[in-house]
Amino acid sequence: MALKDLLVTSAHRSGGSFETRSDRENIVARFANHLKNELNIQIRTIEQIKVKYIETYIAHRLKEGISQRSLQNEMSALRVTLTNSGREQFVKQDRLSNKVLGLSGASREGTKTAITDEKYQSVLENAMKRDEGVAAGIRLAYELGLRSEESVQAAKSVNTWAKQLNEGKYSIRVIFGTKGGRPRDVTILPENRAAIIASVNFARSIAEKQNGCLIDKPDLKSALNKFHNEARVLGLTGKNSLHSLRYAYACRQLHSYESQGFSKEEALAAVSCDLGHGDGRGWYVEHVYTK
To answer: Which of 37, 137, 193, 228 has its CA 20 to 30 A from that of 129?
Structure first.
């Protein structure tokens, strides 16, 4: 088995959500391709990977203009994969720390921005013309703050959500596609209830026509690929990516909580919980999602 195959297999076995595993697999495959194609290093086992190979790879990526934050994520993927392959002590060496590799100056403040109402309506209108299932996923992401995989798999839950909403429940539970497989409850605030009900009912109608799916593809991977590709065609790229829908949701939730009399700290903690981060990441919500 080639080094690339070994790394991808180890990356997959390292756990996480589907999207996390997929990203990790792409990163380690890129690293293996760099060793083989750019450096002509013909090693065949993970045990043969040397510190200088990783140093050279990161230096190359920096020259390509890849951001420090992105490369921090790449190093995290490499560390997890190598650790899972029995090289835990190897990745703990000082030479492979973010600081020594020149990656420690990256800010965690967000590079995305909340999508504007005008941009969202334009995207949604065009999505309806291209693919109603994609449009349904975009609406759910915007109204409920769903991640991409959560939106694509929402068809499994829309009937339950509709029932909960019709019963006047104050929250719905997101189960499928969540990060780390951790279900979370999304609070339904009064001023957003009507729009959420409309989005859920629309998604139900699409799922009924497409054998219980929003994205008409045979498996999750191809469905996610189509969702992302369609989003790019619709203009959801750069600062206005799919994640910008989630940012807009966070801003609306924060405003609603504060209008109910929540303190800033309480409101940020509540939004953090709605997003699935837990109540301890208010700073992250303020500086990334609602900046």
So the answer is: 193
Q: To which H or E segment does residue 74 belong? A: helix 68-84
Cα 131 → chain centroid? 22
Instruction: Give every CB contact of residue 277 below 8 A, 6+ residues apart in sequence.
Output: 284, 285
The closest alpha carbon to 116, from 273, 252, 218, 214, belongs to 252
Distance between CA atoms of 140 and 238, rounded to whole angstroms? 20
Report pLDDT digits (tens) over 145-201. Answer: 999 999 999 999 999 999 999 999 999 999 999 887 889 999 999 999 999 999 999
Q: Which amino acid is at 14?
A: S
Nearest to 58 by CA among 96, 93, 29: 96
Give the tokens for residue 97. 């720390």
User: DSSP per residue over 16-39, as a string?
Assistant: --HHHHHHHHHHHHHHHHIIIIIS
CA distances from 265 to 78, 189, 261, 270 (A): 35, 18, 11, 9
- What tokens appear for 132 in the block? 């109603």
Q: State the Cα–Cα distance between residues 196 and 143, nearest whole angstrom.
A: 6
Token digits of residue 244: 């910008």
8 A C-beta contact, residue 244 and residue 116: no
Q: How confident is the model at residue 110 (pLDDT cuts 50, 70, 90)?
A: low
Q: Note the Cα 14 to chain centre separation in Å.
A: 17
**pLDDT higher than 90, residue 11:** yes
Please determine, for residue 68, whether its predicted confidence score (pLDDT) is greater than 90: no
Predicted confidence at residue 275, as pLDDT, reads 92
Q: What are phi and psi of 173, to 5 degrees?
A: -105, 125
Where helices occur in 85-157 by DSSP H, the ranges are: 88-91, 98-101, 117-130, 132-144, 148-152
CA distance 80 to 60: 21
